[in-house]
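Risk mitigation, structural track. In case the binding assays with manganese (II) ion fail to produce interpretable data, a predicted complex structure has been prepared as a fallback.
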Amino acid sequence: MLTPGNSADAGLDLWSRSDVQTCTSWNAPIIWEGMFNPRHYDQIHRDEGSSVALTVFAIGRYLDAYLEAFLNSSENHFMVSLPVSYYVFTDTPEKVPNIKLAPDRRLTVVKVERHRRWQDISMMRMKAISDLIESDIRLHSTHVFCFDVDQVFTGRFGPEALGDTVALLHAHYYHLPEMLFTYDRNPKSKAFMKTGDFYYHAAVFGGSWKSVKALTEACYKSIMEDKKHNVEALWHDESHLNRYFWLHKPSRVLSPEYCWDTSIGYRTDIRVQRLLWAPKNYQQLRTS
Ligand code: UDP
Ligand code: MN
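Fallback model:
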């Protein structure tokens, strides 16, 4: 039963948005504009000493196409009140633009191999993130957020989004019935799902470093298991992520205000746009 009043998070007013679902069946809040006082979250996370690692991959043509705009916009909007460590994974470190960072924010470039297939580039992020949490992130940051690079911040993306495990409602599916969710439907895949809660978007996920380590490790293991059996999940890492969040319910869910696609058009429930999908020419980006 939904009991929004019992949410553990005192900073949220779950009744303040009556036009949208603000709480999951397992009592995790779904964060929408108007439910919280931003200054409250800035303050409690500063008091708690929270710090955030942001991971982003810019491999092949994605670096020139998206990285600079992503990082510049992030400096203006992402966790502005907290220390942030960026980790840029790329095959061409020499091409990473020089971004002027605010105090208390730093950027590390991590060189990675370029997989031939874009599906593998996307999936193998799970392994790279998990390894880096173990070797570096866990020593410096309390939380981790993982982003696709083909997006631009346009509004506050602040500490109200921090939690133990954080998932994002996919902009194209949040208002659709479950039967239309594009879960993996092949029983041979480790990502197979018959039923689920929501359709989550893999372009943004996060949580405490411990939880993100567990998540990325589990997804990587499932991906490798599939490879062993010569199967690939319908939407690659996103399919595995959806299954993981079905088995391990996120403690906090972000509304599509946290990753909106303007091609959907106007929606009354989207009161702010915090992060937007960037335009994409797949053919140009993905052909080598
Ligand atoms: N990516 C990359 N180079 C590639 C393919 C993917 O850097 O050639 C990274 C990049 O961060 C990208 C993410 O993997 O945002 C996921 O791929 P993409 O955005 O193309 O997937 P989509 O959002 O279209 O499902
Ligand atoms: Mn993307």
